[in-house]
Records
---
Amino acid sequence: MPERFTEGKSTWNTIFIFLGLVIALTSPFHYAIVNLYPSRICVGAIMWCPAIAAFLTLKIKGRKISSLNWNWGNWKYIRWSYVVPALYGIITYVLIWILGFGNLAKAKPLQNGEKNLAYLA
């Protein structure tokens, strides 16, 4: 079997292990968010799940944590990672407002939301 094929197969195997772990780790928290109240702590827990899944994947594959590439990389791409999502959001909201699909929030719903936030605090 060519080396390139086995390397690609190993890579996909690692990706599927990681995705399976992410799904397994986040599922209870997603369930809790949908069915339990309040769910703020579950959102924080979900944010940790990809990191935990990455470390577990490394352990399963027999790799060391130090084998991960911990440097920042090319700053060009880091800058674009901030600019592109902002552009998506700006374009989307401008089109929604110009085409009349949405409008600015009215005072009454904002007051109701304020009461809900005060209840959570």
---
Amino acid sequence: MKLIINNKKAGFDYNLLKKEKFIAGIELLGIEVKLIKQKKVSIKNSYCKLINNNIYIFDMYISNSNIYNTKFSPKRRRKLLLKKKEINKIKKQIKNLNIIPTEIVLNNRNFIKIKFFLAKSKKKYEKRNLRKIKSLEKANFKKLYIKY
């Protein structure tokens, strides 16, 4: 699978449950497929919701390029293509969890897929502690690097 776009913010804002990883296709317009393959897409603030036994992705931004003279809503909701078994599995586990997309990939047959996880949102103090730990690690690494 070839990585098109990665959501780095998801790992910082959420505790991703690594056991609960799903891969789904997306219902797209033809022009959207072209723009995604050109990497004119962002899933930074996007999230998924379960509505009427279907999962939709919201706030996935695909740039509305004037090159192709087509008009579509860049942040419209898009349906994720999953099997009923997978949807039921998500339905059972979703109680206090969020569905967060992390990557857009191309599979072997050049189909666009989305990887998403069930996740629990982090509290502000957890994010603050994580930043503090990372900055201390960087400072210690610089000290060690300078000594040698």
---
Amino acid sequence: MRRETAYKLAGRHHDRPVPGADIHKQREIRFKPLPPGQVERAWLALRMLKGLHIERTDEPLSIVVRYSVLDYSLETLEDALRDAGFALENSLYFKLVRAIIYFSEETQRHNLLSPERLIKQSHEVYIQAWDHHEHGDHDDTPPELREYK
């Protein structure tokens, strides 16, 4: 049985606002020094995206972006910049930080978009569905004759 079917049988409704829609992330995107001028070009390119706030930092090779985790992720933003020809900082430290951020944002987004879990008596839904389902596992033999004595 699909999870959505179980939730419908339990009377759950999912037409409420998405929880976590107000969770915003603030991340730093660092660029390599070459080619020159790519920070300004990236600033102009990212400024066109709706719901994405961009700030300059004291560092000349980085910008700070703020976004809702449901709209964007650091991975999609950096992949788009790489596809557009921008050279991002690629040292071991930044690779590790990116991997952790990518994983945590993907997990958080998945958890926010998944339906609400049934916590109490979730097995009852499956039992009721099985009882109403036509199947061939019914034994008409009385219980006292089924047991070996």
